[in-house]
Amino acid sequence: MTIKIGDNVPDATLTEFIPVETEGCALGPNAFQVADLVRGKKIAVFAVPGAFTPTCSAKHLPGYVQQIDAFRAKGVDEVWCVSVNDAFVMGAWAKEQGAQGKVRLLADGSGIWTRALGLELDLNARGMGTRSQRYSMVLEDGKVTQLNVEAAGKFEVSDADTLLAQV
Asked: Which domain of life is it from (predicted)?
């Protein structure tokens, strides 16, 4: 079953590569529970089929990095990019894209959260395994208030400008 507006997002563990050790976060991959991260917050989430892939690197992630101040001005506490990659890959991509401190790149390495959302994408025929569909959504205290799922191979409704207009 696919998540829809009005649903609460399922809980799962996502990992984030932390480049600088801080109190409470060790250097390297750190695990976070979705339920803890969303509690009491407004979060813009977008998902990509893969870090370092053409559309994701040229358009999807850069749009959110460029619009971070506009999201914050509209009361968004955090912007997340989720992908079925590991935290090391997501950390390297965040560095390469200048996303650190702006967009949280959260790894769903085994696709558990992606499958729980019902938004997995079978790319086995292309040698990429099971990935995430391209989508965006707004979460308010864990509840989906906006959801934009792309048609296969498209990049038309999950971009930063579209989601920003919906916040």
From this structure: Bacteria
Q: How far apart are CA 158 and CA 166, in angstroms?
A: 11
Q: Give the strand pairing for 135-140 and 143-149.
A: antiparallel
Q: Distance between CA 112 and CA 117 in Å, rounded?
A: 9
Mean pLDDT to the nearest integer, 83-88: 95
| CA 63 to the chain's CA centroid | 13
Positions marked catalytic: 56
CA separation for the pair 92, 37 (Å, rounded): 22
| pLDDT (mean) for 135-139 | 98
Architecture of domain 13-18+25-166: 3-Layer(aba) Sandwich (3.40)
- Say how far apart CA 159 and CA 152 lie, in whole Å: 15
The mean per-residue pLDDT over the stretch 36-58 comes to 92
**Contact status, residue 73 vs residue 50, Cβ threshold 8 Å:** no
